[in-house]
């Protein structure tokens, strides 16, 4: 029921996923609306419907709404995963509400203090995306959260994207170890000491899209601003192309000739092609899609969920973090057991 | 002596500025190297040279280097302003060193706790830039620093760019007042209460380039990452255009026809056209240019300096802040006199 184009586009994406990916999609929400939409799209295959009476609106305060509306579609969807009737949730609705529902209904993975939203950014190297996390779940972070983000991103990159030793960067304002704000300087030390992470060093703003990093960690405040900025820049560039290319007689002619090339450029720049963010660190696979998602994005989001399940991402994050916690107990590493390393109170 | 193309490109930009802008440029640095460069560019006009024996290298720790090398070109240049032999400094060298030299030699303006670097970003509305500050001088900020950045940006926008009531935004992760990290939430309150600032509310990442804001404030950590990301995105887009546009027979033909249009797009996207950042809040006009600056950037930087001087930006910032401090003393506003509002310790 969530997102700007629900339920029609959501249903269309789900139908295509069930047809092409060999998954069974359960549509959660208002039965009548969903059935009408299914009829409209005339799918040959049967999609299950899980009825949910309520929806959470975009302007509602997430935690309050999640608690006050147990029968909201996002809660019902999370419960399907909790009770093992489903293996993943995909939502294009209120992202804060999806996070709150995941935390309350599914809980955190052992060893993870804060779940993070990972988003894929395209890079200069075609076909080689970089995962940035967190892009919005945690605005105020401690160094050890960012360290855990690095581990979760590494596991995801290894087992879903098939990169043997993902290179991890810390989003920062300079290359040197001593650069950055308090959070960055202390996180740098933790990442350098973590044997589970191939830490390449600081990633400056200019390095984000260079393709030299597979995983970049940052707090959710910086990450969210960067994500939304990047999305907007894609659109702005396309608008400048539309404004400037056709100018003059030569321009109109050249642009007409280049139409197919412009479409390919749009695909390469456009962030919406990427399906959605993965909520990593909760005990269930959750994909947070963009509110503006249309059928192709929903299809991609369901594929992302399937890949996370097929490659046992959750199990691997959990076993990595538990192993590490045991190691640290053994050697009693001081940088991890300091009582108050929160930078923000 | 600073920057990747010194002294040749710096000298070329300075010659053009002296010829076209009616300013007198003093070149500070190694006399022999500068004279050789002047000879090479064969300028009809005379540029003064202020000899300086030392230079600060990019890898040096700014504060240490500034103190250890009193005769470094950046120190000599700042002293020219301090002793009123010059009205502004333009540097394409080590930006941290330029800031440190400005702080130590010129000092802060009364009423300003922390100077900030303001950078102009182009927006969707052609010819209407937005000033973002801070883009790198202060990595850990208090709410009142961001409030002062808003005042400095407002004064600059009013008196240099001629915008009667500049609209100010707070870089944040949501539109609602309650959104953001600790710093953003507390800054929001201060900006709302400040009669000197036309506060429009939070600016999300997607709003930065929309043109609806004239000034956007953030801490130097976020601002620097955004600035470097934006610079890189411009280059990446141009590279994607170069890769994708000429593909196929139609592509080659169309691209050949569009050559002049592509050049205009490059100018509109390219950040380097903007000359440099203004170090606001120190007692002297200082322009921090990009290390990669060539002659056109240096020319633009000198023009920026001239505009700041002609429009008495420093005097206006100082009088605004002193007036406000007096007002606050009178009404004893609690949000300003709390002893510890630092979020980062």
TrEMBL record, chains A, B:
Transmembrane region(s): none
Keyword entries, A-Z: Cytoplasm, Lipid biosynthesis, Lipid metabolism, Phospholipid biosynthesis, Phospholipid metabolism, Transferase
Molecular-function annotations in GO: phosphate:acyl-[acyl carrier protein] acyltransferase activity
E.C. no: 2.3.1.274
Intracellular or extracellular location(s): Cytoplasm
InterPro entries, A to Z: FA_synthesis, Phospholipid_synth_PlsX-like
EC category: transferase
Pfam family, one: FA_synthesis
Location (main, coarse): cytoplasm
Superkingdom in the source lineage: Bacteria
Gene3D superfamilies attached to this UniProt entry: Isopropylmalate Dehydrogenase
Cytoplasm as UniProt keyword: yes
GO cellular component labels: cytoplasm
Catalytic activity: a fatty acyl-[ACP] + phosphate = an acyl phosphate + holo-[ACP]
Pathway as given in its UniProt record: Lipid metabolism; phospholipid metabolism
Biological process per Gene Ontology, one example term: phospholipid biosynthetic process
Function statement: Catalyzes the reversible formation of acyl-phosphate (acyl-PO(4)) from acyl-[acyl-carrier-protein] (acyl-ACP). This enzyme utilizes acyl-ACP as fatty acyl donor, but not acyl-CoA.
Family label: Belongs to the PlsX family.
Name of this chain's protein: Phosphate acyltransferase
Organism in which the protein naturally occurs: Coleofasciculus chthonoplastes PCC 7420
């Amino acid at each position: 029921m969530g997102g700007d184009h629900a339920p029609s586009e959501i249903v269309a994406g789900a139908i295509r996923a069930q047809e092409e990916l060999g998954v069974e999609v359960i549509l959660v929400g208002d039965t009548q609306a969903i059935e009408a939409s299914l009829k409209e799209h005339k799918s040959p295959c049967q999609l299950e419907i899980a009825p949910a009476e309520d929806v959470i609106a975009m302007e509602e305060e997430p935690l309050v709404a999640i608690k006050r509306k147990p029968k909201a579609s996002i809660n019902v969807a999370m419960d399907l995963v909790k009770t093992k009737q489903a293996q993943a949730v995909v939502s294009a609705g209120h992202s804060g509400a999806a996070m709150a529902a995941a935390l309350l209904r599914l809980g955190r993975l052992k060893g993870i203090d804060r779940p993070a939203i990972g988003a894929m950014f395209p890079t200069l190297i075609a076909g080689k995306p970089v995962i940035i996390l967190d892009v919005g779940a945690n605005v105020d972070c401690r160094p050890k959260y960012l360290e855990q983000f690095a581990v979760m991103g590494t596991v995801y990159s290894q087992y879903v994207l098939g990169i043997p030793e993902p290179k991890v960067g810390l989003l920062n304002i300079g290359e040197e170890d001593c650069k950055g704000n308090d959070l960055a300087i202390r996180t740098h030390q933790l990442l350098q000491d973590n044997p589970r992470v191939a830490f390449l060093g600081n990633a400056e703003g200019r390095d984000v899209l260079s393709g030299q990093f597979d995983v970049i960690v940052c707090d959710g405040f910086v990450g969210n601003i960067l994500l939304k900025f990047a999305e907007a820049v894609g659109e702005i560039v396309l608008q400048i192309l539309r404004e400037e290319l056709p100018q003059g007689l030569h321009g109109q002619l050249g642009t007409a000739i280049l139409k197919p090339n412009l479409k390919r450029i749009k695909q390469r720049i456009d962030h919406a092609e990427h399906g959605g963010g993965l909520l990593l660190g909760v005990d269930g696979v959750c994909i947070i899609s963009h509110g503006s998602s249309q059928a192709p994005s929903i299809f991609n989001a369901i594929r992302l969920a399937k890949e996370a399940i097929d490659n046992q991402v959750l199990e691997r994050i959990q076993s990595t973090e538990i192993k590490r916690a045991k190691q640290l107990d053994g050697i009693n590493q001081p940088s991890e057991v300091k009582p108050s390393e929160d930078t923000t109170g």
